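Subject: design request, 420 residues
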C-alpha cells in the first residue's frame, strides 16, 4: 500500500487548467472540427493578406528596418548594462541624428544639382533655336562615301515646327522674326506636372520610410514579448528545432544585410574617389546614389550607371576640360563599370557566399523574378528570400522523412532576445 505521506518526486509546475488525475483532458474537438478550423485559418490568412496588400510595402520596409536595427541594438544590449528596450531607443536616437545631419548636408547639394540641370536645359534649348534660325539649305547636304544626301526634307519640317516658320503656300511676313510654334505655357505646365509627379513620388517614399521606421521601432520594443508568446505556444519538444530554425533564418538575413552594407560602403568610397579624381562636382552625392542603387543584386550596377552618367554629362569635368561631354561621360561610365565588376565578381562572393548558399543561376533568376513581382524592392530582397525558402524547404523535407532537421546540433541557450 502506498504511503500518502511519503516524499513525492518533484514535477514541473503545470501551465493552465489541468485535467483531473487519471483522466484525459476534456472536451476535445473531433477530427473534422479541427480540420475545418485549420482550413478556416488558412482562408482567413489569405483574406487578411489580400486586405493588407495596399500597405504591404510599408510592412515589408518595417520588418526590414527592424531587422537592420536589431543588429546594433543587440550588440549594444550585450556590451552595456542597458536592457534590449533601452538599447533600441538609443540606436534609433542615433539614427535620427545621423539622418538629420545627412539631410542638412545634402539638401543644398540637391538644390544646386537641380539648378545645374535647369541651366543646362535652358542653354541647350537656346543653342538649338539659334542653330535652327541660322540654318541654310546647304547645311542639309551631306556627302557620305562620295554620295550626296539631301537631309532638308527631314530637317525643314522640324525647323518649321520649332521656329513657327509657315509651310509652303502660307503667307510669309517679312521683316519679322517668326515666333516659335511651341506653346510654352503648355510645355511649362507639362514640365511642372512631371516635376510634381517626381516630388510626389519622393514625398511618398519619405513618408513610407518614416512610417516604416516608426513601426520598426515598435516591433523591436515588443520583440521580447513576442518571443515569450511564441515559446509558450509551442510545445517544449519542438523548442530545439524551432530555435535552430530561427537562428538559421536570422543568420541568412543578418549575413545578407551585413554583406550588402560592406559592399555598398566599398562601392561608395571607390566611386567617390573616381569622381573626385576625374573632376566631377557633387561627387559625394553621386557616390551615395550609386552605392545605394548598386546594392540591387545583378541589375543594380546597370541601373546605377544612369544617374552617374547624367551627373557627369550635366556637370562636366574640372580636370578633363578639353574633352567633349559625350567622351567624358563614356569614360566615367566605363571606369565605374570596371570598378563595380571587380567588386561584384571578386569581393562580393567572399562576403555573401556563406549567407545564402545558393547557385549563381538561381540567384539571377530570382532577382529578375523579384523585380517583375515587386519592382526594385523585390529585386533587392530576392536573394535573402531565396535563402529563407531553401532553409524552410529543407526543414519540411526532414520532417516529412522523419529525420532530424539539424543533426548533431544542440539548442543554444536563449535567455532573452539579445542572445538570439
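Subject: RE: design request

Done. Sequence follows.
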Amino acid at each position: 500500500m502506498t504511503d500518502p505521506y511519503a516524499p513525492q518526486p518533484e514535477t514541473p509546475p503545470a501551465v493552465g487548467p489541468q485535467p483531473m488525475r487519471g483522466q484525459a483532458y476534456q472536451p476535445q474537438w473531433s477530427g473534422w472540427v479541427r480540420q475545418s478550423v485549420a482550413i478556416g485559418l488558412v482562408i482567413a490568412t489569405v483574406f487578411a493578406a489580400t486586405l493588407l496588400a495596399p500597405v504591404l510595402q510599408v510592412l515589408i520596409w518595417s520588418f526590414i528596418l527592424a531587422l537592420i536595427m536589431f543588429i546594433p541594438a543587440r550588440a549594444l544590449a550585450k556590451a552595456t548594462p542597458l536592457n534590449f528596450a533601452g538599447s533600441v531607443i538609443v540606436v534609433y536616437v542615433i539614427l535620427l541624428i545621423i539622418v538629420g545631419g545627412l539631410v542638412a548636408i545634402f539638401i543644398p547639394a540637391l538644390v544646386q544639382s537641380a539648378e545645374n540641370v535647369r541651366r543646362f536645359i535652358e542653354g541647350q534649348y537656346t543653342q538649338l533655336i539659334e542653330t535652327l534660325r541660322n540654318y541654310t539649305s546647304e547645311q542639309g547636304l551631306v556627302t557620305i562615301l562620295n554620295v550626296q544626301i539631301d537631309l532638308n526634307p527631314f530637317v525643314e519640317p522640324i525647323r518649321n515646327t520649332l521656329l513657327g516658320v509657315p509651310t509652303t503656300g502660307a503667307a510669309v511676313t517679312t521683316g519679322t522674326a517668326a515666333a516659335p510654334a511651341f506653346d510654352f505655357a503648355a510645355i511649362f505646365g507639362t514640365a511642372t506636372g512631371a516635376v510634381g509627379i517626381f516630388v510626389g513620388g519622393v514625398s511618398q517614399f519619405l513618408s513610407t520610410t518614416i512610417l516604416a521606421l516608426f513601426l520598426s521601432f515598435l516591433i523591436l520594443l515588443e520583440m521580447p514579448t513576442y518571443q515569450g508568446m511564441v515559446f509558450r505556444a509551442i510545445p517544449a519538444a519542438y523548442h530545439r528545432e524551432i530555435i535552430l530554425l530561427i537562428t538559421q533564418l536570422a543568420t541568412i538575413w543578418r549575413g545578407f544585410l551585413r554583406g550588402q552594407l560592406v559592399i555598398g560602403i566599398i562601392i561608395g568610397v571607390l566611386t567617390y574617389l573616381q569622381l573626385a579624381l576625374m573632376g566631377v562636382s557633387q561627387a559625394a552625392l553621386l557616390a551615395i546614389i550609386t552605392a545605394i542603387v548598386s546594392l540591387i543584386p545583378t541589375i543594380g550596377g546597370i541601373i546605377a550607371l544612369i544617374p552617374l552618367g547624367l551627373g557627369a554629362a550635366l556637370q562636366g569635368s574640372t580636370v578633363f576640360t578639353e574633352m567633349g561631354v559625350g567622351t567624358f561621360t563614356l569614360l566615367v561610365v566605363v571606369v565605374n563599370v570596371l570598378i563595380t565588376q571587380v567588386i561584384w565578381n571578386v569581393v562580393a562572393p567572399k562576403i555573401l557566399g556563406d549567407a545564402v548558399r545558393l547557385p549563381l543561376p538561381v540567384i539571377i533568376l530570382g532577382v529578375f523574378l523579384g523585380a517583375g513581382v515587386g519592382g526594385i524592392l523585390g529585386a533587392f530582397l530576392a536573394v535573402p528570400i531565396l535563402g529563407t525558402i531553401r532553409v524552410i524547404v529543407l526543414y519540411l523535407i526532414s520532417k516529412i522523412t522523419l529525420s532530424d532537421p539539424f543533426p548533431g546540433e544542440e539548442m543554444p541557450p536563449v535567455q532573452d532576445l539579445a542572445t538570439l
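Residues 84-133 form the longest helix (50 residues).
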